[in-house]
Amino acid sequence: MLPTLDCACHLACQASADRIQLRSVLTAPGSTRRSQEMRLFKRESHSVLGSVFLNPTVAAGVAFGSGGTQLRKGPAYTERALYCRVDEDRRVLLVNELGLEGLPDGTVPYDSAEGKALLARVDAIFRGDGGELRTDAACVSPASDREYGARMARMDGDISRFNADTRGPAVNRCEGKVLILATVHDTYEPPQSKTTLWVSTDSAERAFELKRFLFGAQREAEARGDSSIFLPASIEYMNRDAVDAIDEAARLYILVIGLLGVDNPLLKPLFETKSAFERLPMMSAVPDTLLCAFNGLLPPPLPEGVRDACAAYDHHLLIDLGEYGGGEASALRQRLDDFAAAAAETVATPPVRIHEATSAGEAKTLSLFRFVAAAAFKVWCTGHGAKGLSLDYALPTDVGGVPPIPLTPVKRLR
User: Which UniProt keywords apply (predicted)?
Assistant: First the structure.
């Protein structure tokens, strides 16, 4: 008996006269990030997933280490979970680390009486028959990586993004090596307003220095004892090759997903139809080849100002600034402007160009452009008859420029 409902059950609620603040959420294994968001009341979900999945389950986000771009909230990390693992004697064990009242933490055989009782209790919770949920008073395990942003801002570690990190209990970055049955995640206050910026630079070194300078706002806040978070809501990097591949292969993806929305149930049958066609004899490359061939018939998705920047510069950062009531967005924007102005004093051609999205629709398009990157790369390679390997990487923390690929790769897998 496993809780497989596509639902989320809220806990640790604090009611007031005019609102309910949901501090954390218990998610079932089939709960998607979008369905979770819809159930939250004036709160944001723990993280987002990138361009590999359209509407993934929360468990998938935990298993694959998603959300490393979310600097303020952190990735899909939690130390509160219910999962199954196999021990050295090949026995299936049920591990409860949820930290909830009435569900004692510990490890028991999956098929034992204790294990069956625990699963029955969790199943009842997800069916709405479990009564009120509260975090156990003795629970000190975090339901998010609360130091993620500060750690990234210090830029003094070996890891510059969470999807290269294997800290924490076994569920995090497990990639299917354990079976996740339920997880608890913190939720977050949404920003009062959001600004989306496309920042272009003349070199990878300049992009690295911009990132270091921007993150300096958080380091300075820590130094003066300010508890405010002066970090972008998210930041992502793309070079010219990535931008060209997306623009040359994924215009239809951007158009369809933009019109329907990433959580639209119509998207699933569309992609299932494409996959079914690819499974036919000698037809595996036809859909992507056609997508690439007819891509140019569709209008370019990027606004004119961003297209001009992409033609003139090789390195780009997509940055979301959120305003949370402490002047964070304006302070960070001023910091970006100061960096661009200082860089322009040293050369004839401005080495940094900042484009601010002028509408919510334009901001959505910029986000979708980055969102379809993984799918675009596959379409581009197929359409051009090329073989490719898609790698997820981030700007390094300790050096400027494009880091060399070592002969002996560093593997961070569980």
Answer: FAD, Flavoprotein
Long-range contacts at 88-94 (CB < 8 A, ≥ 24 apart): 94/118, 94/119
Question: What tokens were used for 141?
Answer: 């395990």
* Nearest-angstrom CA–CA distance, 30 and 59: 8
Q: Give the architecture (CATH level 2) of 193-383.
A: 2-Layer Sandwich (3.30)
Domain ranges in the chain are 8-186, 193-383
Token pair in block for residue 205: 């070194």
Instruction: Tell me the whole-structure pTM to 2 decimals.
Output: 0.86
Indicate the pairing of strand 234-239 with strand 81-86.
unpaired
- Which residues are within 8 A (CB) of 391 and not within 5 positions of it... i.e. 6 or more apart? none
Give residue 102's region: left, alpha or beta (phi > 0; psi -120 to 50).
left
Task: Output the DSSP codes for 57-117.
Answer: BHHHHHHTT--TTBTTT-SS--S-EEEEEE-TTS-EEEEE---BTTB--EEEETTSHHHHH
**Is the CATH code 3.30.465.10 the one for domain 8-186?**
yes
From CA 389, how far away is CA 57, in angstroms rounded? Answer: 25
